[in-house]
Amino acid sequence: MKTNNPLVKQSKAQLAPLGKIESRTQFGGYALTVEKVIFAYINEDALYLRASEALQVYHTQRTLEPLVYRKRGMPVQLNYFKVDDTLWQDSEQLLQLSASALRAAQQELATRSVTLRLKDLPNLSLRMEMMLHKVGISSVRLLYEMGSRQSWLKLRAVNKHIGLKTLMALEGAISGHHQAALPTAIREELYAWYVKTLHRTNTVEQA
């Protein structure tokens, strides 16, 4: 997605050797991805890298601040660590740690994709798994790659009764949350997209 956030632009430029970096809003900030695999977050004007073996070694030498967000009023620490000023100034080290973060994320995704079925994800039942199979989303990896919105659109194309609850359930399945525990910013963003999409669809159908 396009964004005018200066830190997103800076991160993409500095980490360009990793591949084509894309960004999407998530948890009130931005997730950075390469081939749809999340390896970093930007939150409150700070870049956080996913934990990896190399980052843990660096962390023992220089303590890095973890990414924390609030879930139902309680602080939750995520497995991401803040890029401080010293690391920003060491572009070679930053790139190496970012590459390590990406590899760790890719390995975890590959492992989860092999061992998990769609029905094993939060919010998804056997019935939902069968519905996703019918629209060509036959694995956890494909669901992750497709994302909640595109997956919902595929389901909606064959079943007009698919609504907002399913969209929230898909997002939660991908992010590892029960749909009721999705962060408020994500729920609001998805609701706005849902309303806009329905309006656009209804306009086209009435034309």
UniProtKB/TrEMBL annotation:
InterPro entries: TfoX-like, TfoX-like_gammaprotbact, TfoX_C, TfoX_N. Residues 14-105 form the TfoX N-terminal domain. One of its GO terms (biological process) is establishment of competence for transformation. Pfam families: TfoX_C, TfoX_N. Gene3D superfamilies: 5' to 3' exonuclease, C-terminal subdomain, YgaC/TfoX-N like chaperone. Residues 117-193 form the TfoX C-terminal domain. PANTHER family: PROTEIN SXY. This is Competence protein TfoX. The lineage of its organism: Bacteria, Pseudomonadati, Pseudomonadota, Gammaproteobacteria, Enterobacterales.
